[in-house]
Amino acid sequence: MATLEIHDLHVSVEAENGPREILRGVDLTVKQGETHAIMGPNGSGKSTLAYSLAGHPKYTITGGTVTLDGEDVLEMSVDERARAGVFLAMQYPVEVPGVSVSNFLRTAATAIRGEAPKLRTWVKEVKEAMERLNIDPAFAERNVNEGFSGGEKKRHEILQLELLRPKMAILDETDSGLDVDALRIVSEGVNRVRESGEVGTLLITHYTRILRYIKPDHVHVFAAGRIAESGGPELADKLEEEGYEAYVKGDRTA
Amino acid sequence: MAEAQNIPAGSTTAGSIAVAAESTVATRMSAPPSFDVADFPVPHGREEEWRFTPLERLRGLHDGTAEAGGGVKVDVSAPDGVTVETVGRDDARLGRAGKPVDRVAAQAYSAFEKAAVVTVPKETVLTEPIRVNIQGQGGVSFGHTVFELGAFAEAVVVIDHTGDGVRAAGVEYVLGDGAKLTVVSVQDWADTAVHCSQHNALVGRDATFKSVVVTFGGDVVRLHPRVNYAGPGGEAELYGLYFTDDGQHQEHRLFVDHEASNCRSNVVYKGALQGQDAHAVWIGDVLIRASATGTDTYELNRNLVLTDGARVDSVPNLEIETGEIVGAGHASATGRFEDEQLFYLMARGIPEQDARRLVVRGFFAELVQQIGLPDLRDRLIARIDEELEESVA
What we know:
The structure holds two protein chains of two kinds.
Chain A: E1 3-15, E2 18-31, E3 35-39, H1 46-54, E4 59-68, E5 71-72, H2 78-84, E6 86-89, H3 101-113, H4 119-132, H5 150-164, E7 168-172, H6 180-195, E8 200-205, E9 218-223, E10 226-231, H7 234-242, H8 245-253
Parallel strand pairs in A: 3-8, 3-9, 6-7, 7-8
Antiparallel strand pairs in A: 1-2, 1-4, 4-5, 9-10
Chain B: E1 12-13, E2 16-18, H1 24-27, E3 72-77, E4 83-87, H2 103-111, E5 115-120, E6 130-149, E7 154-175, E8 180-187, E9 194-203, E10 208-215, E11 220-229, E12 235-244, E13 249-258, E14 264-273, E15 279-288, E16 296-305, E17 311-320, E18 327-336, H3 339-346, H4 352-368, H5 374-392
Parallel strand pairs in B: 1-17, 2-17, 5-6, 6-7, 7-8, 7-9, 8-10, 9-11, 10-12, 11-13, 12-14, 13-15, 14-16, 15-17, 16-18
Antiparallel strand pairs in B: 3-6, 4-5
Helix pairs in contact in B: 4-5
């Protein structure tokens, strides 16, 4: 069973006046089949955690370990991490000029699966996955994320999640900027992948709204670069009522 | 209509649409077109038509100091029915498609000793391409070639430039009524070559001219693909693909002169750049004269900058002297291949080198499709991949 283990992770970014520490000792274990929601105020370091796990070059790991099934993730390049089973659904997916969605998906699937998927079954697989996410078939011939609406970008991220079937899915504010219909469609996509029982999910969000559609097993509150409190789904209900104020204040006096 | 995104430092993407009584496309040149090199002053570099060009790297083509002495090896293979002749300077078939528009083009016209005339008789439809291989053997050479298609003739011509040397040469395409000509001109020179060439197409009534210009090599390559219409109903498609590396200067200056009515033109040029001081220049001039009612024209230039240190100057210019047209437009955009794009692709498991190849191949795909010849298309894709490998090495 795949397990992602994050231990005492410290991460900095280069700022104007030298490096600035953003993650200050994150400990978290996510097992295959589990869903962990990470919630927290803006600037608490949630997205930094997501991008650090995927290997974005902007972030420098200054301490701690991350392993996937015992393998050192931090030693791997960005593409190696993806091939090892780490998937990051991005908050702001990037436009890639000149590359069609269909070409991109097939190239990614070939890289992840280690061989090119058989064309006939692949076409069917993509078509069905697109239908489930209410994506217009014409979408396949558009350039990756170019001119996509906010909702289209997020559905495209979840389309990749469904096709690439990672061991660990990190969803970085996938709910942001979505209207209720789009949120429902995207959440159903995530749930289909979760129901396979083969993926561990790290759901990063600012709002509790998405948790009505995607039920987490564990909820963690992120504040000042580390996990301030962990609990079950009931913790999300508390945050819904009280907000993050207690954690932000606690941070100031700490 | 002109758009620009993420323009690398020092690059320009300008554009204008002018409605003018008098054409500035014509008047902004430093001298009117002429066959005689003496009618053009020696450029100093600040003239509109020379301001992007490194004159000091033209090896004297622009100031009369380049003396013919080198050579090129020319192989022509033509299917049955095609006439290939070598003719003297006074042959009446030379110079019909248009006059030289700058000093180097006039120098080429004034200096060649013999010209080649390739003729496809009327109503002859070729099933195999005419291939012209021009291999530079070093040194300075001048040349002139005319391709003429009689009425309703159809042909594909491949002009392939390789090797080293300094070459200024004119090319004319004369299309009879209803003729169809596709020309692929490949500039795959050695890195030290200099090549300046004016291509004039004279498109007959209801004729179709398609040009694909592919520029990879050379120290300086400066081309003027130009189109005039001899009668109404003509169609011109001008495609271009360039890959500009470290220190290379590749300049494409297009002009489509709509004088006849009901003609179409469509221009798509795309370039990728990488390396320090790679410099691509694209000038796209389209003039719709008062007589050219029913004109339909569009031109597009896109550039993809793969590394720091490269520079693009892209200037589309559309002049419209009549409102009685079907359509007219242009667009120019220069974008960078960003670290964020690379991260996005790699985060989906795609290795770095494959990610770059994916982006560049995708960028050029619509142009590569325009090359109907499989051997040439495969070579082109292989060359693009080679260029990308070099960037990593």
